[in-house]
Write a structure and sequence with these properties.
This protein is an all-alpha fold. Helix content is 73%, strand content 0%. Belongs to the binding-protein-dependent transport system permease family.
């Protein structure tokens, strides 16, 4: 098992490299890069935005020197909207963002820096990417971990209960709850919660935005903890209601399949109690499929589902950061968040395989690979 674990850890390196390479090629081919974004800002907001951006970047561009209408009237640029701008200024923009070098050199420098977790600086935020990610990551971790924990704590016992009582009254009425969970997307349920419980048209029990009150730093520790859970209740609940349905059905069907197998009938014939049969024999085999699906479920809950939840509840997390950076073509932030997402995903898959082997010792990935 140790040999397999070490081999898997080393295989993460080329996998991570390949993912970054593919995404780098796709993003480089996409129109509207950072140079074009800057040109659009210059065109759209004139001197005020120009002065602010140039001051943030620290390159000393002055508003009256950025646009030279006479000198570049016949200038043809590869950037859309660059007509009327001084070619020298365009060259400075390219150098500032590193686009004066070939793509393979930029990618090589990026990989070299990423080996030491140096993600560079944001193009438009005047802050290092590592610091930006460190500021946003706790929000996404809070939302993702609590949602995942509650979904599994609800879905697994509920799925087992539905399998044991298959076709009975409990199974039937809980199926209606699962249908509702399937039918209502998390973002729509989040809006429903806001309207009814967060000062919409009915009650105002929970706060509408953020993970803490404005004066949170002045609270005592018990008050800080209660304030945190008060703020995170609705976002987590919105994630849970849409995520528990599929896992509940997966657990139920897995247990139903195992309950009808011959070894269960043999265990019952030996006089073992129903609880001993269920949790001593069926549980380990039935949970294999649930464990194997954990990495994909975790990534979905942690990143995909939480993106819209972060937007709706004004939670300044990593998912929202990655989305906004992709829209604004802030490449250092895009690749920095992609690197973190991918690394977490690979580690979760790795831990899922180890858990798989722990639950069922008969599984030996080393022999399968050999």
């Amino acid at each position: 098992m140790l040999t397999y674990a070490v081999r898997r850890l080393f295989l993460m390196i080329p996998t991570l490299f390949g993912i970054l390479l593919v995404n780098f090629m796709i993003i480089q081919a996409a129109p509207g890069g950072p140079v074009e974004q800057m040109i659009a800002k210059l065109r759209g907001t004139a001197v005020e935005a120009t002065a602010r951006i140039s001051g943030a970047e620290g390159d000393g561009f002055q508003g009256n020197s950025m646009i030279d209408h006479g000198a570049s009237s016949n200038f043809e640029s590869k950037y859309r909207g660059a007509r009327g701008l001084d070619p020298e200024f365009i060259a400075k923009l390219e150098k500032m963002y590193g686009f004066d070098q070939p793509a393979y050199i930029r990618f090589g420098k990026m990989i070299k820096n990423y080996l030491t977790f140096n993600f560079g600086d944001s193009y438009f935020r005047d802050i290092s990417v590592a610091k930006l990610i460190a500021e946003k990551l706790p929000v996404s971790i809070s939302l993702g971990l609590w949602s995942t924990l509650l979904i599994y704590c609800i879905s697994i016992p509920l799925g087992i209960r539905k399998a044991v009582t298959d076709g009975e009254r409990f199974d039937i009425w809980t199926s209606w709850v699962i249908i509702v969970g399937y039918a209502i997307p998390s973002f729509l349920f989040a809006i429903f919660l806001i309207v009814f419980l967060a000062g919409g048209s009915f009650l105002q029990i929970f706060p509408l935005r953020g993970l803490a009150s404005d004066n949170w730093a002045t609270f005592s520790w018990p008050h800080k903890i209660s304030d945190y859970f008060w703020h995170i209740t609705l976002p987590v609940f919105a994630n849970v209601i849409s995520g528990f349905a599929s896992l509940t059905l997966l657990t139920k069907n897995s247990f139903l399949e195992e309950i009808n197998k011959q070894y269960v009938l043999t265990a019952r014939a030996k006089g073992l109690s129903e609880r001993r049969v269920l949790y001593g024999h069926v549980f380990r085999n039935a949970m294999l499929i649930v464990v194997s699906g954990f990495p994909a479920a975790f990534i979905h809950i942690f990143f995909t589902s939480s993106l819209l939840i972060e937007v709706i509840f004004s939670l300044d997390g990593l998912g929202l950061l990655g989305f906004e950076s992709a829209i604004s073509r802030d490449y250092p932030v895009v690749f920095g968040t992609l690197f973190i997402f991918t690394l977490i995903g690979l580690l979760i898959h790795f831990l899922g395989d180890l858990t798989y082997m722990f639950i069922d010792p008969r599984i030996d990935f080393e022999k399968r690979e050999g």
